Amino acid sequence: MFDARAARALQQGDHLTVKEARGLRLVRNGESLAWVYRYRSPVDSKLRQVTLGAWPAMSISAAIAAWDRRRSERGAGADPQLNKRREREEQALQAGLGRYTVRKASDEWLKAYRGTVTPKTYGEAERLLAREIDTIADTLVVDISRKTAFDLIDAKRDTPVVASNLRRVLGAVWDRALDAERVPDGTSNWWRQILRGKLPSKGKTIAGRHVGAGKRVLSEPELKIVLPFLPNFSRDVRDVCELYLWTTCRGSEICAMERDEIAEEPDGQLWWTVPTSKLKMRRNPLTCDLRVPLCGRAAAIVRRRLDAAAGNYLFPSVGKTGHVEQRAIGVAIWSHMPYAGTRPDWHRARLQVTHWAPHDLRRSSRTLLSKLGCPADIAEAILGHLPPGVQAVYNRHQYDDERRVWLLRLGDRLEELARG
To answer: N or C: which end of the chain has fewer CB within 10 A?
Structure first.
């Protein structure tokens, strides 16, 4: 006799059997209870099971009737699970899903993806799909074979970052199509399988030479050359580079600096509060606003720009964002490298210290802090990094006083190098 109280008391993975129906069982799966018929397949002798319905929506009498139908199928030499899969595929075809192309699947994924990531990340995925799937865009999702998937990705092996990103994005497109039952259950997601771990990046290429990942730190002798060279850049580029060094902040934070983020305390100290929404770690619930004491050149730059800026952004631009883009700073520095071949008719000063980018200045200042004796936890707080592991939960000190002390010392050392 079926016991409803015993059914409700089932724990995850437990089941109740029905004595009158061999192979019929009620199984707990998370919050739900489902009727399942467990049997040995007459097709390949494998042990399989097929879900009949959810309890209590399907009563025990209805479950026994469904079990009897599936048992009859098995008795006739068919596999009930495979039959159910074919039924779903036929329903999908009848609903018109047979014309579900790669382009349509990609468009639906992009629509769901929008708003879950930053506009920049979304734009990169949108451009990638628009540019790279033309050869398979009109092919049905169910018709993409393993070889088709392999050929598409393998053809981009010379650009491993693009190949890896395309493989990842198409894998997500297929996952959504399967989850939404836009394609028959059992459709293979070849993108998750092909060339897995076989598309390593060779690193950045400059002047035809691979330079690796480019984690560059400018030494003190190199900074002695770079700092006096900065006036050769435009005022925007020079100011951003100096703020990189004097604050150790990220370029995206500096370029998007706003007037209402700056405050002056009674002692004359200027503070820049970077809101959590602009920080790289903004999705971490432990991340809070980053308070940056503006010392030395950093304070002078910000005061000058506060007086000059007509709007809220301190680095205004006519672009879509309303402020100078971080990428523009990198392009400007690149154009002064001796190997930069852009605008050959433009005569400009060339950097003697090569193979570096704006973000390397942040890394260089962090290295200088260590060389000056700054404790690691304070230096990482200055950079806006969260402490590792459980420390981030228990250590909620903001290090305001320590930031000011060590950024003053850093500024003094940078001034010495600039004079050198």
So the answer is: N
